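Appendix C. Worked example: Gfo/Idh/MocA family oxidoreductase
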Amino acid sequence: MSHVMIGLVGVGKIARDQHIPAMTAVSGCQLVATADPHAALPDTPAYASLEAMLDAHPEIAAVAVCTPTHLRYSQARLALMRGKHVLLEKPPGATLSEVEDLMTVADQQGGSLFAAWHSRFAPGVAHARQWLAERRIQRVEIEWKEDVRVWHPGQAWIWQPGGMGVFDPGINALSIATAILPQPFFLRGATLQVPSNCQTPIAAELSFTDAHEAVIEAHFDFRQTGPQTWDIHIETDAGRLDLTQGGCCLAIDGEMVVEAEEREYAGLYGHFAELVARHESDVDVAPLRQVADAFLYGHREMVDAFIE
Ligand code: NAP
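Step 2, the predicted output written as structure tokens:
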């Protein structure tokens, strides 16, 4: 398989923490250049805009879009219209409609479009999905609690419309839940706690059910200091499953069956290279739809202002 030559747009925290190391590690992908108005990497050609990067490097076959969510659509569309394949960091867009339009454009242009739900590549997720496939879900507890100051330092966009607030990490939990639960589930009620100086929630309590009336609860909080919590606990008619540490650990009926290091982005880029080689797309909007439902149907509670 020849290398996918990649241009990266948005050289921020996630690009540096994950995308660049993963591209370097995965055979099948090669970083050619970056586009960001201010940031650059040593030893990599850097441009202030996506257009300038694509003009300068016709060999770029694919663009990884790692900018804040409200910029996804215009940048992804531009890249697709220039005949490039596109990897969208999660969330794939600020709205469902724009993601659906990107799917149409990718189809028309013959480009691969990948909505990269990185948490689905956590080591325990595939096994969990397989184990749950034949079982009846009774109860699910999702606890996704992290420190916004650690993971999103100084990022004003996260508190603006489209930034999603605590749903920025919470959508990762929903990307796992929508992948492993055997039945579709839907929102019954939600409370969104919104700081008085922000547009998006800092915490959320969500209640879902499915066609068999399973009880599915999610607790998202951006104010957790100390150890971080990214856990999903599931009781079924035939045993219990605990997927913890963001999906790195999987226990079934109390016995650890998967305990592995986090390598989500290596899996994600491997999958992207395969999609490009097969001229296929992979865009699942289910996690984004759950978030949209929470914004559509949730109660708002105003809480203390968020001071960075
Ligand atoms: P970030 O640190 O704010 O990085 C975004 C980068 O994009 C910044 O360097 C920003 O520059 C740049 N940018 C802004 N406008 C641009 C434009 N028009 N063209 C090119 N670059 C532009 O944010 P992040 O944490 O990396 O998050 C980016 C995306 O990744 C978000 O959608 C987030 O949900 C997702 N994500 C984040 C994490 C995480 O742990 N942080 C994890 C997984 C996924 P300025 O700072 O100068 O505006």
